[in-house]
Amino acid sequence: xxKPWLQHLGSECVLCRASTPETHYHLxxxxxxxxxxxxxxxxIVTFRWRGKHVVNVSYKALLAYLVYHLWEERNHRIFxxxxxxxxxxxxxxxxxxxxxIICKHMVDSVSRRxxxxxxxxxxxxxxxxxx
Length: 131
Prior knowledge:
By secondary structure, this protein is an all-alpha fold. It has helices at about 25-30, 30-45, 55-80, 85-105, 110-120. It comes from Sesamum latifolium.
């Protein structure tokens, strides 16, 4: 537990229910629940860590969205007694990143087409609002 004043919450990870201290490292990098969320995302999105700048930006967004939603899930479980599966969280993250990509006004380029292909976003038809 990173914060001693929160010890009343217990030493069990609320995401994977392991009796391990709930540190930031555990929650975001070694928790089986978090790793399953990432596996589910990888089942949807083909990762290629090389690429143009715009593709790398999407990976950074993925990390930020994953951390945010894992923390949100933790808080929902503690304070609202609700739970979502890794599949649900992965789909939410991918959907939000797709929306983010679509909302960006990028010129037609190889990088943009690669980004759309990577995130399995249908290429916009001519005249569409985000083309």
